[in-house]
Structure formats: C-alpha cells, structure tokens
Amino acid sequence: MEPKMKRFIxxxxxxxxxxxxxxxxxxxxxxxxxxxxxTNSASQFTLLDGMNVHFRDEGPSADxxxxxxxxxxxxxxxxxxxxxxxxSKDHRVIRMxxxxxxxxxxxxxxxxxxxxxxxxxxxxxxxxxISKCYLAGNSLGGLIAFHFAATYPDKVKKVILIxxxxxxxxxxxxxxxxxxxxxxxxxxxxxxxxxxxxxRKSLEDAYGNKNLVTDVLVEQYRDLACREGNRxxxxxxxxxxxxxxxxxxSKLTMPTLVIWGKLDQLIPVDNAYKFxxxxxxxxxxxxxxxxxxxxxxxxxxxIPLVNKFxxxx
Length: 313
What we know:
Layout lengths: L2 H22 L6 H8 L4 E6 L2 E8 L8 E4 L10 H7 L5 E4 L17 H14 L5 E6 L1 H12 L4 E7 L13 H6 L2 H4 L8 H11 L8 H11 L4 H10 L16 E6 L8 H9 L3 E6 L6 H4 L1 H12 L3
Parallel strand pairs: 3-4, 3-5, 5-6, 6-7, 7-8
Antiparallel strand pairs: 1-2, 2-4
C-alpha cells in the first residue's frame, strides 16, 4: 500500500473516532441522581470493601434461610424484580448490585476476579448475619454462585444456576457491547460513549423474544452502565483473564437446579448439559423460546420451577 493511501486511511479512521466521540458522548451519571430513579423503599446501602453497596432485603425478616439472588455482567439487582416481588410475599429475599455494576459502582481495588467476588459475598453474608441460604445466580452471578457454594458448602442449602458462565463458550453469537469492549482501539472510547442503539442491540441479543426489550428497559440498562466508574470497571473485567476452575462443579454437595434458555446467544444451551454431566445432584430445565436472562424475560416460567425445587416458597 502506498504511503499516501496509508495516511488517507489513518486520517479517515481518526476522523471516524472523533465523530463517534462527538456524536455519542455520554458523561458519567452521578450516583445520587441515579438513586432518585432506581431505589425504592426496600433499598438499603452498606459500606463494604470501600463501596457503598446497594441491596434489598425483602420479605419476612424472621426467615433464617433467605433466598439470595446474584445478577450477571452489566446488569443489576433490578433484573430480579418480577421474581423477587413474588417470592418475597412468603420468603425472605436478598439481592445486591455486585461490585462494578448498578448503584454499587466500581471496586476501589479494581479487582473483579471471581475469587474476589466470592470473598465479597462472604463478607456481605457476615455483615447481614446470613448463616445459610438458597443461592441463585444468572450468568456471572451463576459463576459466582457455584464457586461460593463449593468454597462455603455449609452456607448454601441449595443452588439455582440460570444460564451460568463457567465452561468455555463455543460458537456463541455473543453481545455486541462485550465484543466492542474487547477491541483494543475502541475500549477506552467506550468509557465516554454509550450509544442507546448499542444498549438496545445488546439486550436484544440477550433476549429470545426481542419484542420484550422495551424503551424503559433499555434506558435502565444504559443509565446504570453510565453510573460513575461502571464503564471503566466493565472494560477492566473484559480485558482480564477470567479462567474458571470448572472442577468445582463436581464438588457441589447440595442439590442444584440448572435453568437454561434454549435461545441463549451468549452462553449456548450446550453448556447446560456440561453442568448436568458434572453436577452430582442436579435438576435441569430447558426453557424453549427464551434467551440468556430467563428470570427477567420469562419470570412466569422461572418462578414455579424455583418454587418446586426449593419446596416451600
């Protein structure tokens, strides 16, 4: 390629980047403003590991065996709203915004390793006096859940894994936002631009029924992604090596329910059978026409499955 052509292409690329920055610039959103919009009477905050952790503890406070819910990457405790509203009628339900996400925001140490998430969850249990629980997690939350259950088996009675991360992913379409975040030349730009179109496309990739991706849902995800520090935290997570010790799956001694959306494009349903193969005590439910976040997309299907599994919800 001739030098003039190379310079022309370089200038064109730089101008394209400048255009993106000008057209889609989105400053960080102050957490106090987001609290006004995304907290309710059940929202609480507790100082833990240098973070003001947002959580909700709902249902009968006398229930000593709560259901603890963990969300996935780029999500928040709001993903469990429909399920929690139902379960908390008769059961204590606890959920939190994990470090790096939601209103909790970034970890001051910038440590988003699975081991650190497990340690964080253990400290949260100690702070809330949770001695034992039912533990449910979706995607990243599912990965944290089975690591926690393997590390602290005496603290978990039963596990619910919903489209959990863990095993290597093959032939997955993936999320547009996650793909862009792994491109070196674009990653830093994504800390200051968050086009609503990319948020919508990423949510549509996560859903089986794209018609369920509403404007309100897209706005919620975009707002919380832009919480001060969250975009940089996500890029750190995406760039780091997150190797997983899947041998821990075979070490789970408690009953485990695996729920999977058959149309999951982020973690294909083939991985459900890997969990089924390695879990000593499992129940597997495959949901037709459902994507990566069944508890958010089709809570009417997830709620009765969990009720039956736990037995007294």
